[in-house]
Specification:
This protein is an alpha/beta fold and 465 residues long. Helix content is 44%, strand content 16%. The protein folds into two domains: 175 residues, Rossmann fold; 190 residues, Glycogen Phosphorylase B (Rossmann fold). Helix 12 links the parallel strand 10 and strand 11. The two termini are 26 Å apart.
Length: 465
């Protein structure tokens, strides 16, 4: 991944102590572009950066990204182990095997993306885990934070700043800042309490987490977030002073030497053997609920898209069901699923699409205020978008003249019509649309601009020698 250009700080400041920054993320730090970019950018600016993440089998315990160090710590909360044992005992397959019956009866591929009740151990584990965590969530948070603290405390240096990626790591970063000194930075990637299952929760867990965020966010020396909509909501909820700093999830300028003409790429067509002349619609990102994945499949069946193919590029819990959906005869081989590619390679794949589809669903306040990474990635690659008419998304698409907006992203017919309008443009008009996307990314919506804001913040909080 490209870091900000310039002289190596280790060469420029030979012999000078570099202020240490410890960033914490409750993920494996393999595909999260924001987390990796921030670590690399701060390291390139002169900070001694350690990114602490979760270790999983098959991943290196330690590696370097640019001048940043990634340290992965083995950690499995006690309640996850309890869930695994309970799920094994509760699995219908376990009892069918004891009776000598077929443990995995054949099931047809699901037409929609609702989880099938197929009696598999994984399904039992999911159901048991969901029930167990719902009942024990307030206690679970306390146990998780204490267990992770014990797992990482011996491996961390003293730091001039502790950078918490999302609410999951804020208690840990705040504790280290209190015990070891250093500034506290809260990087709110989303409205955590308004996202996913947490947005639908109305129990004691939500109340406890709201109080936790309210208390710790005011202890932070700086709050960073991803767009002006979420910044305004955090400001409204917690009366922050100063207000959150917006650092958008834009990729670095991609092939700036090419100017506004996007570099040619045919990665998707070659990888999937898509016939020449067939236009390509791309969804890239997480395979999870409320992203419009089912609407994309249904839209592909519209007559106006009969000569197009659609590709899901990413990873997530719905992958197996997307593969089953793509295999259905009604799609005639025009629906494809590809695993996520390394962040450094992503834009080369994105650029090989004709249209980027972002039919985000209005399922939560977090989605309503979202500014998806894939929006900025599409602009950088020169690919026009069809996106939901949500406040932040609409402002960006309109200002850039980057494509079409959906009034009802739940409607496959509207999605199909919007994509078809872009595909129906004359070659000259389509080329001009792609140049507008590239221009917006090269001039302002890029990581060189956004990452510079983060570096300026850190130079105030932890000045360089």
């Amino acid at each position: 991944m490209a870091a900000l250009t310039g002289t190596s700080p280790s060469a420029a400041r030979a012999g000078a102590a570099r202020p240490a920054v410890v960033a914490l993320v409750y993920k494996t730090a393999t595909h999260d572009a924001r987390v990796l970019r921030e670590a690399e950018t701060l390291a390139a600016a002169g900070y001694d950066v350690t990114l602490v993440a979760l270790w999983r089998p098959g991943l290196p315990r330690e590696e370097r990204r640019g001048e940043a160090r990634i340290l992965r710590v083995p950690f499995e909360p006690l309640d996850d182990r309890i869930v695994r044992v309970l799920a094994t005992l509760a699995s219908p397959g376990r009892w069918r095997r004891r009776r000598g019956a077929d443990p995995r009866p054949a099931t047809s591929a699901p037409r929609a993306l609702r989880p099938p009740d197929d009696g598999a151990p994984a399904s039992a584990r999911h159901a048991v885990g969901r029930a167990f965590r719902r009942v024990t969530r307030p206690l679970r948070w306390t146990l998780v934070h204490r267990a992770w603290y014990r797992a990482v405390r011996r491996e961390l240096p003293a730091a001039a700043a502790w950078h918490a990626h999302d609410l999951l790591t804020l208690p840990l970063a705040a504790r280290f800042a209190r015990e070891r000194g250093g500034r506290l930075v809260y990087d709110s990637h989303e409205l955590f309490l308004e996202s996913g299952r947490m947005a639908r929760s109305r129990g004691p867990a939500r109340w406890a987490l709201r109080r936790l965020e309210a208390r710790l966010i005011r202890q932070a020396d700086a709050v960073v977030t991803v767009n002006e909509g979420i910044a305004a909501e955090l400001l409204r909820r917690y009366a922050l002073a100063p207000p959150p700093l917006v650092v958008m999830n834009c990729p670095p300028r991609w092939h700036p030497e090419a100017g506004e003409e996007p570099p040619p790429s045919d990665r998707l067509r070659q990888a999937l053997d898509i016939p020449p002349g067939r236009r390509i619609l791309l969804y890239q990102g997480g395979f999870s609920e409320h992203r419009g994945l089912e609407q994309i499949a249904e839209a592909l069946l519209a007559p106006e898209l009969a000569h197009a193919a659609a590709v899901y590029l990413g990873y997530g819990p719905l992958r197996a069901r997307l593969v089953a959906l793509a295999a259905e005869p009604r799609f005639a081989g025009r629906l494809h699923v590809l695993d996520a590619v390394p962040p450094d390679e992503l834009l080369d794949w994105t650029a090989s699409a004709d249209v980027s589809l972002i039919p985000l669903q209005h399922s939560t306040l977090n989605h309503w205020l979202n500014s998806p990474n894939k929006l900025f990635e599409s602009l950088a690659a020169g690919v026009p978008v069809v996106a939901s008419r949500f406040p932040v998304i609409e402002r960006i698409v309109r200002e850039c003249g980057a494509g079409e907006l959906l009034d009802d992203p739940t409607d496959p017919a509207e999605l199909a019509a919007a994509a078809a309008r872009i595909l129906a443009l004359s070659p000259d008009a389509f080329a001009a649309l792609r140049r507008r996307c590239r221009r917006a990314a090269l001039e302002r919506l890029n990581w060189e601009t956004e990452g510079g804001r983060l570096v300026e913040l850190y130079r105030r909080l932890a000045p360089l020698p």
